[in-house]
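Duplicate of #3305? Posting structure anyway:
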């Protein structure tokens, strides 16, 4: 049961469906279903109704409020309604090295040579009120800078934290970056992706991760991990 955030933008649900289709191709016979936290149906409770067992995987790129609070709360509600339900809970998709590979694929598709010393990269996540989640993006940016020959890599946040993508791009230009590319660490097109592309002021804006093959591989890896050693879910308060 892959649980996505959900969006009013129909492109988001289409992206999730395409990603899960990739996972099904990689694991024929595995029952892969979807649920949403908001804006789209089915909800997690609706999707779990009538099942005896399920592996619930957050289709989220960082561990933050949704994975720590919203999803466990929805799981606890579902289990309270049906005490027979047995759930194994998995980790979020990120961080994971394959997600960096997917980011590089999207940059290459946008015409950016990987590790180009003349290009600074702004790694843009959705942003969170949880400082720990934002710190993970900062560490991801620093690691990417160490591993490749980019002019620089800086983290930015589309909401809830700073720098914004536009602020990060402007700072890199002031520092002398010859070219600035934005790499959206976003699963699907929608409000944030459109806003970043419209307002960031970069020379190049790569596409969102979307149904990248790497994401399907990570999803199945998280499934296997959850079967072996599920993440603990806090009891309802």
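Output from current build:
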């Amino acid at each position: 049961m892959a649980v996505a955030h959900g969006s009013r933008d129909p492109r988001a649900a289409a992206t999730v469906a395409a990603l899960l289709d990739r996972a099904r191709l990689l694991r024929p016979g595995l029952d892969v279903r979807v649920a949403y936290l908001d804006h789209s149906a089915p909800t997690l409770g609706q999707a779990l109704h009538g099942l005896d067992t399920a592996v619930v995987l957050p289709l989220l790129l960082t561990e933050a409020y949704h994975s720590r609070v919203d999803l466990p709360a929805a799981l606890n509600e579902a289990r309270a309604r049906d005490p027979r339900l047995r759930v194994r809970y998995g980790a979020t998709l990120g961080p994971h090295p394959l997600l960096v590979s997917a980011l590089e694929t999207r940059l290459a598709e946008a015409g950016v040579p990987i590790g180009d010393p003349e290009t600074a990269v702004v790694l843009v996540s959705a942003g969170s009120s949880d400082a720990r989640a934002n710190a993970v993006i900062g560490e991801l940016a620093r690691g990417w800078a160490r591993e490749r020959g980019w002019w620089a890599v800086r983290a930015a946040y589309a909401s809830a934290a700073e720098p914004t993508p536009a602020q990060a791009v402007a700072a890199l230009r002031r520092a002398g970056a010859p070219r600035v590319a934005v790499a959206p660490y976003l699963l699907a097109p929608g409000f944030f992706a459109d806003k970043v592309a419209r307002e960031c002021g970069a020379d190049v804006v790569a596409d969102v991760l979307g149904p990248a093959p790497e994401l399907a591989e990570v999803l199945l890896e998280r499934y296997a991990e959850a079967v072996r050693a599920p993440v603990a879910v806090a009891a309802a308060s």
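Confirmed duplicate; merging threads. The first strand starts at residue 2 and ends at 4. The longest helix spans residues 10-26.
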